[in-house]
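re: that chain from earlier
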Amino acid sequence: MQTAPVVASLSSEQRELWDRVCELWAQSQGRDRTLIGASIHPQYVGWDMSAPSPHGKEAAISSVVGDAPELRNYSLTPHSLQVYDHVVGVVHYSYQATVQPRGAAALAVTGKWTEVYLKQNNAWVMVAVSGRPDPSPQGQPPNAEPAA
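^ sequence. v structure.
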């Protein structure tokens, strides 16, 4: 789900960038390592601000495949999208999601991300990300019902 006023005011180039952000979340939900890997630049560096240091491409992929909690559903809200010289895109957005850890109850999580993209061969490729999940009032994400 997207915030109508922000999305409605996007240029076609910004809309293409936002569509790419949404595609990457869909790819994460699909958990296809090859598809996700092709969407991330080989020199990618990201920083989940909850972690002590930045991470590389393989850690980014591993965060959504294999033993990582399954992304059950999500909603994204864009706050700012900028495209520079038709080749660099910066997106600030917030999210709400339900994740399902193996053998545990589903969790509702929210947070904010800033993502940086480079346009290569007419496609937006993620080169950097920074952000974190929001802390819950009790310090742990609240329980949530799994998506139907």
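The first helix runs from residue 4 to 8.
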